[in-house]
Amino acid sequence: MPRFLDHAAPDFEAAFTALLSAKREDSPDVDDTVAAIIADVRARGDAAVIELTERFDRVSLTPETMRLGAAEVAEAAGQVPPDVRAALELAAGRIRAFHARQMPADDSWTDPAGATLGWRWTPVDAAGLYVPGGIATYPSSVLMNAIAAKVAGVGRLAMVVPTPDGALNPAVLAAAQIAGVDEIYRIGGAQAVAALAYGTETIAPVDKITGPGNAYVAAAKRRVFGKVGIDMIAGPSEILVIADGQNDPDWIALDMLSQAEHDESAQSILITTDAAFGQKVADAIDTRLQTLERRAIAGASWRDFGAIVTVPDLATAARLSNRIAPEHLELCVADVDALAAQITHAGAIFLGQWTPEAIGDYVGGPNHVLPTARSARFSSGLGVLDFLKRTTLARMTPEALRAVGPAAETLARSESLEAHGLSVRARLDKLNG
Amino acid sequence: MPRFLDHAAPDFEAAFTALLSAKREDSPDVDDTVAAIIADVRARGDAAVIELTERFDRVSLTPETMRLGAAEVAEAAGQVPPDVRAALELAAGRIRAFHARQMPADDSWTDPAGATLGWRWTPVDAAGLYVPGGIATYPSSVLMNAIAAKVAGVGRLAMVVPTPDGALNPAVLAAAQIAGVDEIYRIGGAQAVAALAYGTETIAPVDKITGPGNAYVAAAKRRVFGKVGIDMIAGPSEILVIADGQNDPDWIALDMLSQAEHDESAQSILITTDAAFGQKVADAIDTRLQTLERRAIAGASWRDFGAIVTVPDLATAARLSNRIAPEHLELCVADVDALAAQITHAGAIFLGQWTPEAIGDYVGGPNHVLPTARSARFSSGLGVLDFLKRTTLARMTPEALRAVGPAAETLARSESLEAHGLSVRARLDKLNG
């Protein structure tokens, strides 16, 4: 991967296309394994889940201990340092306030024909939240998923989190408590997704499953899609920063590294109108990489997928940004509003130098579950709509049916759907007879 | 499948559960075939699409004739009888008006901490619409998909429709014209889905693909999901009618048959508080089945999957309805509003005896692409939101960062994401220094 790209260079288009299409993740093909696990859980329920948990997590469960008891949750959550709990609570409050504004309105109106039309939003009855057990266990993600569900009005929120070798994560449990998770099961992997989708003797099935996971979890979510709803299949994290020369290179370097440190497959890109500034950011990244705790991960991500792109003007930056359709987009330029207005595809935009992306990961309020891998071209971050569904409503009066019924009958006949037409005709005949 | 179920019968729960879980569709496993077709189209582009179209549709295309020319569309669409065109236009106008009201609002506000937060909705750049070529080619479905996309503001709408043996469907092309479809390609099957998702020399890739299709199309949509967005994978149609005894049995019979005639796998269920009325509807269905054009299809659907359920009261009817989560729900009772208020899961509700479901298929205004197979528990009918995505916005001031930054730093440290914390800390130090 080239580190520096110059929009003016003759090979720019080829280099930029390569950057866009870089395959950053090798998903192992685990589909057959996952299909077998799902079939096993459907057939044998708890027994299958318990066996698989013993095998993969080295934890012996019974139907009674599969679910964490309230006392156990409280005890583990109690180990969280007070400043972390306070920060989780501050974050939760801000996330809740943001998502409450997302609640869509019902509508109903009578149109000129006399038909009363509209729709109504209702929450799913039950949602399942997958929380990974390993290195990428983030209490902030528990808040983001669970609060969106609870604000939407989901009555029952069941969380699954594997506990390899029995270890509980206090901060994850504290976040679950704060967010109002109703049930917590110490299971993970494809077996947990199958249990949520199909239910077992102990775990009632849910209607929607969200949350990140490894290749097995992703494959399982894909497979149960249709039986239940799922959120997006998230890929490795990305940030694009558009910055002019009037920024502190170290701040921008840290913003880029805060994505790179997530994952060796993460991608951090800077687009700048100032080539010298771009070089300063690259230098600052190198400096920070000497001491950063996660320098091995962040360094690999930066080495393999990072890039600095020089452009002649911000209009070009916006065009390139829209081709990237970044998950996270930071705008650090003099007139952020003018630049933001040119952005058509991005998961989340962070405006101005006082808004590092990390604010959005924790305490900004907007959801940090965002579309990756260019899918911001067609999808949105997680929100209350993911836990709601819309029922449309229509009510005809005899007059309205007289006005529009004949057209329906005509179209039904043209589609050779006789009963459709007759169902309208029988009523029109009554009105006319 | 039992025809009559009585809520008071001792075996009711078992019979109702069997009704709920009836497997109505045997999807052949075509996944390997589809994977090969997609790989072929990705590798060879137009050449693969042309070869596959020759093989499956017996049509010889070139890159130049793949797309229908404007004159060809106009000529075919001109063959549509004037009354059908007028009906399509009436339908289009009503669908457009309904969907225009669905457009979500952008939002922006400054919160107590001084952070400016909000979101913005933008359309996908390009959408692809799959239209089947065989028996189930419905111009009304073209209107429903295309108008939702166009109202959302999709700039480029590309439609694919196979033309087996070269036959064009005039009404489908007229509907495409009326709805504002931008490009029409005479290709179908998994190869058309692959061409839309990945692009070929002739067909530019799209960002979102919607529309119904056979098992190959459904498998292809599942496979390209992630590369592009897709709508739901639709199953066979369903209707649930809740009716008291004060209805014309023939009207209800026709409403039930208007689903049954779609497909042998369709399902029509009546829940009634009046057992004698239920018997009258069954008799009326039998009578209509003697003469209905599509009696073979409708008869098979009714025989295999139809049911009439007697309940003691409407509260019970609502509870059963919510377990079914029907695609279409007709409420034909004295107080439809009281009953509608108890419905939590349904794709679309038709209120009162003057609102046959067929109105919703054509001219009601709401979309007729609706969640099937109990997926109304977690998903909605097609609408403008399917062609829009939301970008969240956050802008901190120095004061806002001072207020919430320390909590972000605390959480970043607790998640061992040092660069996240440093990106906030560097700015706070500047503010404090």
From TrEMBL, chains A, B:
One Gene Ontology term, aspect cellular component: cytosol
Top-level EC class: oxidoreductase
Pfam families the UniProt entry points to: Histidinol_dh
Residues noted as binding substrate in the record, renumbered to the chain: S237, Q259, H262, H328, D361, E415, H420
GO biological process terms, semicolon-separated: L-histidine biosynthetic process
SUPFAM superfamilies assigned: ALDH-like
InterPro entries: Ald_DH/histidinol_DH, Histidinol_DH_CS, Histidinol_DH_monofunct, Hstdl_DH
Pathway(s) annotated for this protein in UniProt: Amino-acid biosynthesis; L-histidine biosynthesis; L-histidine from 5-phospho-alpha-D-ribose 1-diphosphate: step 9/9
Residues reported to bind NAD(+): Y130, Q191, N214
Keyword annotations of the record: Amino-acid biosynthesis, Histidine biosynthesis, Metal-binding, NAD, Oxidoreductase, Zinc
Residues reported to bind Zn(2+): Q259, H262, D361, H420
Cofactor binding mode and count: Binds 1 zinc ion per subunit.
Residues making up the signal peptide according to the UniProt record: none
Top-level taxon of origin: Bacteria
EC number(s) reported in the record: 1.1.1.23
Active site (record annotation): E327, H328
Reaction(s) this enzyme catalyzes, per UniProt: L-histidinol + 2 NAD(+) + H2O = L-histidine + 2 NADH + 3 H(+)
GO molecular function, one term: histidinol dehydrogenase activity
UniProt cofactor(s): Zn(2+)
Function noted in UniProt: Catalyzes the sequential NAD-dependent oxidations of L-histidinol to L-histidinaldehyde and then to L-histidine.
Record HAMAP family: HisD
Family: Belongs to the histidinol dehydrogenase family.
Protein name per Swiss-Prot or TrEMBL: Histidinol dehydrogenase
Species whose genome carries this gene: Pelagivirga sediminicola
Gene name of the encoded protein: hisD
